Amino acid sequence: MDIDKVFYRYVMKNLFADPCEVRFWDGEVVKYGEGIPQFRINFNKPIAKLEVFSDPYKAFGEGYMLKKIDIVGSVQKVIESLYKNQSSFLHQKKGYKKLFKIFSNSIRESKENIQFHYDIGNDFYSLWLDETMTYSCAYFKSPEDSLLQAQRNKVSHILRKLNLQPGQTLLDIGCGWGELIIAAAKDYQVKALGITLSSEQYYKTAERIENEGLQDMVEVKLIDYRELEGRTFDRVVSVGMIEHVGKAHLNSYFSAVSALLNENGVSLLHCITGYKESAINSWFNKYIFPGGYIPAVQELVSLMAANGFYLIDLESLREHYTRTLEHWSRNFEGSLTLAMKIKDETFIRMWRLYLNSCAASFHSGNIDLHQFLFTKGVNNTWPLTRINMYS
After folding, report:
1. CB-based contact 69:12 (threshold 8 Å)
2. Which residues form the DUF7884 domain (predicted)?
3. What phi-psi label fits residue 308: left (phi over 0), alpha (psi between -120 and 50 degrees) or beta?
4. Which residues are catalytic?
5. Cβ atoms of residues 358 and 288 within 8 Å
6. Are 269 and 238 in contact (CB under 8 A)?
7. Handedness of CA 306, 308, 312, 314 (dihedral sign)
8. I need a surface site. Which of 175, 239, 283, 370 has the fewest CB within 10 A?
9. C-alpha to C-alpha distance for 160 and 116, rounded to whole angstroms
10. Is the pTM of this model over 0.70?
């Protein structure tokens, strides 16, 4: 008797919400569920049972990376099917809350974590991001919008929300490759500073600023937001950065924003959110976002109030992120020939799993994307309606 096969036949029986097929390492194919199979899982070799018991997310993630498992069909749909079946053993409560204390993210650790993800090469990111190198949720005014148009829409949407006026100052915490601060200076005549912990992003942004001739209006620094001293700003924006802060440092982030904002100043926070406190799973923490933490909506709102901020606008862009990730995934698959010249197959499979897992998570509602707009103290001069955001 093949004990591994008996184990996996039992595990697969109640894993997916949709009908599927599983082909085992000995060639046998077993159908699960009623109806036409939506995908097939091929086991090229068994994954150690102890690994599955102790950490199924990491075990299956590494199994795919190392070609112990192959997927025939849409990787995103497979993961959505996992998420939809809430009765499977994957959704049983685990002791992940203990991870909160581990992910402390000091300044040194934050730099290391950011560099782990973002300093893997601008040449790699340029293969599947749009021409602006924007690596965050886009904003689709129409389903027909290209990724480039949707990313420009997103930057414009954020800048309109901030109600920028000529001569004001803007700080972008986690500025990426500089698209937002450059657009702010060009379109609103504000003086903008972008800060990042990624060397690759810093040098590319500095190059863009020089090429645009914006040295008098825009600057970029390779620095942690906690190290920025002696300056305050009329507006502070952060796009896709607070997920790297860690639970233990969320309050410190808002305290720092308060210190960096002028009185009656305004801040916009664009970030991935959850509806309950939850550490990222161990596969993501090891291979994608070390030290990452997805904050709950109510957690962020509570911290804003505790730091003297007034929340004036909150918007969900969840399905916008699903579309963004689907664009990235298609671009990534379309650039495999070039990608495999600079990355090995294990990395390629890891990145494919990452992009598709994220798309599945947003589409399934496991996570969300919100933009929070809040003021330092009471700002009675703010527009009475949201017309300025859409005009």
Report:
1. no
2. 7-94
3. left
4. 358
5. no
6. yes
7. negative
8. 370
9. 33
10. yes
